[in-house]
What we know:
By secondary structure, the chain is of the alpha/beta class. It has helices at about 50-60, 80-85, 100-105, 115-120, 130-135, 175-180, 200-210, and strands at about 5-15, 15-25, 30-35, 40-45, 70-75, 90-95, 125, 150-155, 185-195, 210-220, 225-235.
Amino acid sequence: MSARFAELDWRVTPMGEISLRRRRDPTVDQDVYEVKLGADFLMSSLFTVAEVALARLALDALTVDTDLDVVVGGLGLGYTASTVLDRPSVRSLVVVDAVDAVIDWHRQGLVPLGLRIAADPRCRLRHGDFFALTTGPGGFDPDQPGRRWHAIVVDIDHSPTHLLHPGHADFYQPDGLRRLADHLHPGGVFALWSDDPPDDAFTARLAQVYATARAVVVTFANPLHGGTSANTVYLATRH
């Protein structure tokens, strides 16, 4: 059994102070890894069902199932990226994160899935601003500018309206969604995690740009209060 609490890393970033903590949770009798940005909790290894579902729903929505090239925006604790890599049909994965500390945690094995993700030869961990990369001509792979992808899976902001930074707001408008669609193959899938209930206005904006658009509610047990919690996954398919 590990110590009851340990701060594994703490750094100052352009977005604020970020920290990685491990604590022993008596409710579930296991180690829980948590990431905080300032005073806000960004993620916890207690709640990973929706992060896993995000990747599975995106890949299941594709009409092709071989030699898949995928982008994940937001590395976090690695559950979405790890689920993508669980698919033998995935040929390559680029994971973009704006905080270099988060990438370091995986390469150093400070989080449970870190070394598995970092060591997978199909996976590249890229330090960068995901939203900025959607607007530039180079795209997500610096070695292959303009490269297109079968799926782009995003888990960065809390929701399309609850943002980590106001500069992300344009991404969730029709022009930003069109720019993202340009990075997808025809029939490619854009998937987005949200901590809020389905937003009909955002789904309608997706439908302006993509051939199909829907919101999926993902429910999971919450051991902290004994009830059920829910996240939303938006799925959109390019024309």
